[in-house]
What does this fold into?
Amino acid sequence: MSALLALADDQHYPSGALYVVATPIGNTADITLRALHVLGMVDAVAAEDTRNSAHLLARYGLEKTLLAAHEHNERSAAEKVIARLRAGERVAYISDAGTPGISDPGARLVEAVRSAGLEVVPLPGPSAAITAVSVAGAWVEGFTFIGFLPSKAAQRVAALQALAAQPQSLVFYEAPHRIVETVGALCQVLGAQRRILIARELTKRFESLHECALAQAVAWLEADANRQRGEFVLVVQGAPPAASDALSPEVERVLALALEALPTKGAAKLAAAITGASKNALYERALALKGER
Ligand code: SAM
It folds into this structure.
Protein backbone atom coordinates (compact mmCIF):
# COMPACT_ATOMS: atom_id res chain seq x y z
CA MET A 1 0.00 0.00 0.00
CA SER A 2 2.73 2.48 0.90
CA ALA A 3 4.31 1.83 -2.53
CA LEU A 4 0.99 2.74 -4.13
CA LEU A 5 0.63 5.85 -1.97
CA ALA A 6 4.08 6.90 -3.14
CA LEU A 7 2.50 7.42 -6.58
CA ALA A 8 0.73 10.43 -5.09
CA ASP A 9 3.98 11.79 -3.68
CA ASP A 10 5.25 12.81 -7.09
CA GLN A 11 3.68 16.24 -6.88
CA HIS A 12 4.14 19.48 -5.00
CA TYR A 13 1.53 20.01 -2.27
CA PRO A 14 1.84 23.68 -1.34
CA SER A 15 1.54 24.70 2.29
CA GLY A 16 -0.99 27.40 3.19
CA ALA A 17 -3.50 25.78 0.82
CA LEU A 18 -7.01 24.36 1.16
CA TYR A 19 -7.39 20.87 -0.31
CA VAL A 20 -10.97 20.09 -1.40
CA VAL A 21 -11.13 16.32 -1.26
CA ALA A 22 -13.85 14.05 -2.69
CA THR A 23 -14.71 11.04 -0.51
CA PRO A 24 -16.78 7.88 -1.27
CA ILE A 25 -20.55 7.97 -1.88
CA GLY A 26 -21.07 4.58 -0.25
CA ASN A 27 -18.26 2.13 -0.74
CA THR A 28 -15.32 3.09 1.50
CA ALA A 29 -12.92 1.59 -1.03
CA ASP A 30 -13.78 4.35 -3.53
CA ILE A 31 -11.12 6.73 -2.25
CA THR A 32 -8.24 7.85 -4.41
CA LEU A 33 -4.59 7.32 -3.54
CA ARG A 34 -4.07 11.06 -3.74
CA ALA A 35 -6.99 11.70 -1.35
CA LEU A 36 -5.43 9.29 1.18
CA HIS A 37 -2.03 10.88 0.71
CA VAL A 38 -3.36 14.41 1.24
CA LEU A 39 -5.65 13.49 4.13
CA GLY A 40 -2.62 11.89 5.78
CA MET A 41 -0.45 14.96 5.15
CA VAL A 42 -2.73 17.88 6.15
CA ASP A 43 -2.57 19.57 9.53
CA ALA A 44 -6.37 19.63 9.94
CA VAL A 45 -9.51 18.44 8.20
CA ALA A 46 -12.54 20.73 8.01
CA ALA A 47 -15.66 18.61 7.67
CA GLU A 48 -19.40 18.90 7.15
CA ASP A 49 -19.96 16.48 10.04
CA THR A 50 -16.96 15.89 12.27
CA ARG A 51 -18.36 12.64 13.77
CA ASN A 52 -18.98 11.05 10.37
CA SER A 53 -15.62 12.22 9.13
CA ALA A 54 -13.76 10.96 12.21
CA HIS A 55 -15.34 7.57 11.55
CA LEU A 56 -14.43 7.63 7.85
CA LEU A 57 -10.83 8.73 8.54
CA ALA A 58 -10.48 5.99 11.18
CA ARG A 59 -11.35 3.42 8.51
CA TYR A 60 -8.25 4.57 6.63
CA GLY A 61 -6.18 4.52 9.82
CA LEU A 62 -6.10 8.32 10.05
CA GLU A 63 -6.69 10.47 13.12
CA LYS A 64 -6.80 14.20 12.48
CA THR A 65 -7.71 17.50 14.08
CA LEU A 66 -11.24 18.10 12.82
CA LEU A 67 -12.93 21.48 12.34
CA ALA A 68 -16.70 21.73 11.86
CA ALA A 69 -17.59 23.51 8.60
CA HIS A 70 -21.21 22.91 7.69
CA GLU A 71 -24.00 24.79 5.93
CA HIS A 72 -24.81 26.90 9.01
CA ASN A 73 -21.33 28.03 10.03
CA GLU A 74 -19.51 28.08 6.69
CA ARG A 75 -18.58 31.75 7.03
CA SER A 76 -17.17 31.59 10.57
CA ALA A 77 -15.52 28.25 9.81
CA ALA A 78 -13.88 29.91 6.81
CA GLU A 79 -12.25 32.49 9.09
CA LYS A 80 -10.74 29.74 11.23
CA VAL A 81 -9.52 27.84 8.17
CA ILE A 82 -8.04 31.02 6.67
CA ALA A 83 -6.18 31.77 9.94
CA ARG A 84 -4.61 28.29 9.81
CA LEU A 85 -3.70 28.65 6.14
CA ARG A 86 -2.08 32.03 6.83
CA ALA A 87 0.00 30.32 9.50
CA GLY A 88 1.28 28.02 6.74
CA GLU A 89 -0.85 24.96 7.48
CA ARG A 90 -2.41 22.66 4.91
CA VAL A 91 -6.13 22.09 5.54
CA ALA A 92 -8.42 19.60 3.77
CA TYR A 93 -12.16 19.99 3.35
CA ILE A 94 -14.43 16.95 3.09
CA SER A 95 -18.22 16.74 3.00
CA ASP A 96 -20.30 13.83 4.25
CA ALA A 97 -20.11 11.99 0.94
CA GLY A 98 -18.86 12.59 -2.56
CA THR A 99 -17.52 15.85 -3.93
CA PRO A 100 -17.78 18.97 -1.74
CA GLY A 101 -19.76 21.83 -3.26
CA ILE A 102 -21.99 19.47 -5.26
CA SER A 103 -25.32 19.76 -3.37
CA ASP A 104 -23.05 19.95 -0.33
CA PRO A 105 -21.27 22.68 1.65
CA GLY A 106 -17.84 23.76 0.52
CA ALA A 107 -18.50 26.43 -2.10
CA ARG A 108 -18.52 29.37 0.35
CA LEU A 109 -15.38 28.13 2.04
CA VAL A 110 -13.64 27.86 -1.33
CA GLU A 111 -14.72 31.39 -2.24
CA ALA A 112 -13.59 32.85 1.07
CA VAL A 113 -10.19 31.15 0.87
CA ARG A 114 -9.61 32.31 -2.70
CA SER A 115 -10.74 35.87 -1.92
CA ALA A 116 -8.21 35.87 0.91
CA GLY A 117 -5.56 35.33 -1.77
CA LEU A 118 -4.87 31.74 -0.69
CA GLU A 119 -4.62 28.64 -2.83
CA VAL A 120 -7.40 26.05 -3.32
CA VAL A 121 -6.47 22.61 -4.66
CA PRO A 122 -9.18 20.19 -5.90
CA LEU A 123 -8.79 16.43 -5.44
CA PRO A 124 -11.29 14.71 -7.75
CA GLY A 125 -13.18 11.58 -6.83
CA PRO A 126 -16.69 10.16 -6.55
CA SER A 127 -19.84 12.14 -7.15
CA ALA A 128 -23.28 10.49 -7.33
CA ALA A 129 -24.35 12.58 -10.36
CA ILE A 130 -21.37 11.62 -12.52
CA THR A 131 -21.56 7.99 -11.36
CA ALA A 132 -25.21 7.79 -12.51
CA VAL A 133 -24.58 9.56 -15.83
CA SER A 134 -21.71 7.17 -16.56
CA VAL A 135 -24.19 4.27 -16.73
CA ALA A 136 -27.15 6.07 -18.34
CA GLY A 137 -26.31 5.44 -21.99
CA ALA A 138 -26.05 7.32 -25.26
CA TRP A 139 -29.37 9.16 -24.86
CA VAL A 140 -27.60 11.46 -22.40
CA GLU A 141 -25.50 13.55 -24.76
CA GLY A 142 -25.08 16.49 -22.49
CA PHE A 143 -26.68 17.16 -19.14
CA THR A 144 -27.58 19.87 -16.69
CA PHE A 145 -27.03 19.12 -13.03
CA ILE A 146 -29.99 20.34 -10.97
CA GLY A 147 -29.52 18.53 -7.64
CA PHE A 148 -32.48 18.69 -5.25
CA LEU A 149 -35.76 20.19 -6.47
CA PRO A 150 -37.76 22.41 -4.07
CA SER A 151 -39.67 20.34 -1.51
CA LYS A 152 -42.94 22.34 -1.88
CA ALA A 153 -45.12 21.05 -4.72
CA ALA A 154 -45.90 24.41 -6.37
CA GLN A 155 -42.26 25.50 -6.35
CA ARG A 156 -41.18 22.12 -7.67
CA VAL A 157 -43.62 22.36 -10.60
CA ALA A 158 -42.44 25.92 -11.36
CA ALA A 159 -38.79 24.79 -11.30
CA LEU A 160 -39.59 21.91 -13.67
CA GLN A 161 -41.59 24.13 -16.02
CA ALA A 162 -38.54 26.36 -16.35
CA LEU A 163 -36.54 23.28 -17.43
CA ALA A 164 -39.15 21.66 -19.68
CA ALA A 165 -37.79 22.94 -23.01
CA GLN A 166 -34.16 22.20 -22.19
CA PRO A 167 -32.80 19.76 -24.81
CA GLN A 168 -30.08 18.34 -22.54
CA SER A 169 -30.73 15.63 -19.98
CA LEU A 170 -31.41 16.70 -16.42
CA VAL A 171 -29.79 15.19 -13.33
CA PHE A 172 -31.60 15.34 -9.99
CA TYR A 173 -30.85 14.19 -6.45
CA GLU A 174 -33.68 12.91 -4.28
CA ALA A 175 -34.26 11.48 -0.83
CA PRO A 176 -36.38 8.36 -0.22
CA HIS A 177 -39.35 10.11 1.42
CA ARG A 178 -39.93 12.29 -1.65
CA ILE A 179 -38.96 9.96 -4.46
CA VAL A 180 -42.48 8.96 -5.58
CA GLU A 181 -43.77 12.53 -5.41
CA THR A 182 -40.82 13.89 -7.37
CA VAL A 183 -40.92 11.24 -10.09
CA GLY A 184 -44.68 11.90 -10.42
CA ALA A 185 -43.98 15.61 -10.91
CA LEU A 186 -41.27 14.85 -13.51
CA CYS A 187 -43.81 12.83 -15.50
CA GLN A 188 -46.54 15.43 -15.16
CA VAL A 189 -44.44 18.44 -16.14
CA LEU A 190 -41.80 17.03 -18.51
CA GLY A 191 -43.98 14.49 -20.31
CA ALA A 192 -44.63 10.76 -19.98
CA GLN A 193 -42.54 9.71 -23.00
CA ARG A 194 -39.13 10.78 -21.76
CA ARG A 195 -36.69 8.20 -20.45
CA ILE A 196 -35.56 8.15 -16.85
CA LEU A 197 -32.72 6.30 -15.16
CA ILE A 198 -33.45 5.69 -11.49
CA ALA A 199 -30.05 5.10 -9.88
CA ARG A 200 -30.39 3.98 -6.27
CA GLU A 201 -27.78 3.26 -3.60
CA LEU A 202 -24.85 3.62 -6.00
CA THR A 203 -21.73 1.69 -4.98
CA LYS A 204 -23.60 0.15 -2.03
CA ARG A 205 -24.88 -3.36 -1.34
CA PHE A 206 -28.38 -2.79 -2.71
CA GLU A 207 -27.34 -0.71 -5.71
CA SER A 208 -29.96 -0.73 -8.45
CA LEU A 209 -30.33 0.89 -11.85
CA HIS A 210 -33.70 0.98 -13.57
CA GLU A 211 -34.43 2.66 -16.89
CA CYS A 212 -37.96 3.19 -18.22
CA ALA A 213 -40.28 5.83 -19.67
CA LEU A 214 -41.48 8.41 -17.13
CA ALA A 215 -44.98 7.03 -17.73
CA GLN A 216 -43.99 3.76 -16.01
CA ALA A 217 -41.65 5.13 -13.33
CA VAL A 218 -44.08 5.79 -10.45
CA ALA A 219 -45.76 2.38 -10.88
CA TRP A 220 -42.33 0.72 -10.86
CA LEU A 221 -41.35 2.48 -7.61
CA GLU A 222 -44.68 1.66 -5.97
CA ALA A 223 -44.56 -2.01 -6.94
CA ASP A 224 -41.96 -2.73 -4.20
CA ALA A 225 -41.31 -0.64 -1.05
CA ASN A 226 -37.60 -1.53 -1.27
CA ARG A 227 -37.39 0.42 -4.53
CA GLN A 228 -38.20 3.59 -2.57
CA ARG A 229 -35.41 3.12 0.01
CA GLY A 230 -31.97 4.69 0.05
CA GLU A 231 -30.39 7.50 -1.93
CA PHE A 232 -31.35 8.41 -5.49
CA VAL A 233 -30.01 10.05 -8.60
CA LEU A 234 -32.55 10.59 -11.38
CA VAL A 235 -31.31 11.14 -14.92
CA VAL A 236 -34.09 12.36 -17.20
CA GLN A 237 -33.93 12.68 -20.98
CA GLY A 238 -34.01 16.23 -22.38
CA ALA A 239 -36.90 17.80 -24.29
CA PRO A 240 -37.63 16.19 -27.68
CA PRO A 241 -36.43 18.35 -30.63
CA ALA A 242 -39.90 19.63 -31.50
CA ALA A 243 -40.42 21.10 -28.04
CA SER A 244 -36.94 22.60 -27.77
CA ASP A 245 -37.15 24.10 -31.28
CA ALA A 246 -40.62 25.54 -30.66
CA LEU A 247 -41.11 28.71 -32.68
CA SER A 248 -42.16 31.92 -31.00
CA PRO A 249 -45.74 33.14 -31.63
CA GLU A 250 -44.36 35.98 -33.79
CA VAL A 251 -42.39 33.57 -36.01
CA GLU A 252 -45.49 31.34 -36.27
CA ARG A 253 -47.55 34.38 -37.38
CA VAL A 254 -45.05 35.37 -40.09
CA LEU A 255 -44.87 31.80 -41.38
CA ALA A 256 -48.66 31.47 -41.52
CA LEU A 257 -48.92 34.71 -43.54
CA ALA A 258 -46.15 33.61 -45.92
CA LEU A 259 -47.88 30.29 -46.45
CA GLU A 260 -50.99 32.06 -47.66
CA ALA A 261 -49.07 33.52 -50.60
CA LEU A 262 -46.24 31.08 -51.28
CA PRO A 263 -45.53 27.35 -51.57
CA THR A 264 -44.02 25.60 -48.50
CA LYS A 265 -40.36 26.04 -49.36
CA GLY A 266 -40.69 29.67 -50.43
CA ALA A 267 -42.76 30.50 -47.34
CA ALA A 268 -40.14 28.96 -45.04
CA LYS A 269 -37.37 30.89 -46.83
CA LEU A 270 -39.20 34.20 -46.60
CA ALA A 271 -40.17 33.69 -42.94
CA ALA A 272 -36.54 32.79 -42.13
CA ALA A 273 -35.31 35.95 -43.87
CA ILE A 274 -37.81 38.13 -41.98
CA THR A 275 -37.48 36.57 -38.51
CA GLY A 276 -33.96 35.12 -38.43
CA ALA A 277 -35.36 31.74 -37.28
CA SER A 278 -33.90 28.51 -38.69
CA LYS A 279 -34.99 27.79 -42.30
CA ASN A 280 -35.07 24.03 -41.60
CA ALA A 281 -37.22 24.45 -38.49
CA LEU A 282 -39.57 26.74 -40.44
CA TYR A 283 -39.76 24.27 -43.35
CA GLU A 284 -40.63 21.42 -40.92
CA ARG A 285 -43.26 23.60 -39.27
CA ALA A 286 -44.65 24.70 -42.67
CA LEU A 287 -45.04 21.06 -43.72
CA ALA A 288 -46.83 20.31 -40.45
CA LEU A 289 -49.13 23.31 -40.90
CA LYS A 290 -50.00 22.22 -44.44
CA GLY A 291 -50.78 18.75 -43.08
CA GLU A 292 -53.03 20.23 -40.38
CA ARG A 293 -54.89 22.24 -43.01
N1 SAM B 1 -21.70 15.77 -2.69
C1 SAM B 1 -22.43 14.58 -3.07
C2 SAM B 1 -22.00 14.14 -4.46
O1 SAM B 1 -20.94 14.57 -4.91
O2 SAM B 1 -22.69 13.37 -5.09
C3 SAM B 1 -23.92 14.77 -2.95
C4 SAM B 1 -24.38 15.10 -1.56
S1 SAM B 1 -26.10 15.37 -1.43
C5 SAM B 1 -26.24 16.09 0.15
C6 SAM B 1 -26.73 13.78 -1.11
C7 SAM B 1 -27.58 13.27 -2.24
O3 SAM B 1 -26.74 12.77 -3.28
C8 SAM B 1 -28.47 12.11 -1.87
O4 SAM B 1 -29.71 12.55 -1.32
C9 SAM B 1 -28.69 11.42 -3.19
O5 SAM B 1 -29.65 12.10 -3.96
C10 SAM B 1 -27.31 11.62 -3.84
N2 SAM B 1 -26.45 10.48 -3.50
C11 SAM B 1 -25.38 10.48 -2.68
N3 SAM B 1 -24.85 9.25 -2.60
C12 SAM B 1 -25.59 8.44 -3.39
C13 SAM B 1 -25.56 7.06 -3.72
N4 SAM B 1 -24.65 6.26 -3.20
N5 SAM B 1 -26.49 6.58 -4.59
C14 SAM B 1 -27.42 7.40 -5.12
N6 SAM B 1 -27.51 8.71 -4.82
C15 SAM B 1 -26.61 9.23 -3.98
Notes: The two ends are 73 Å apart (CA to CA). The pocket of S-adenosylmethionine is lined by residues 25-26, 95, 97-99, 102-104, 127-129, 173-175, 199, 201-204, 231-233 (CB under 6 Å). The mean pLDDT is 94. The longest helix spans residues 279-292.
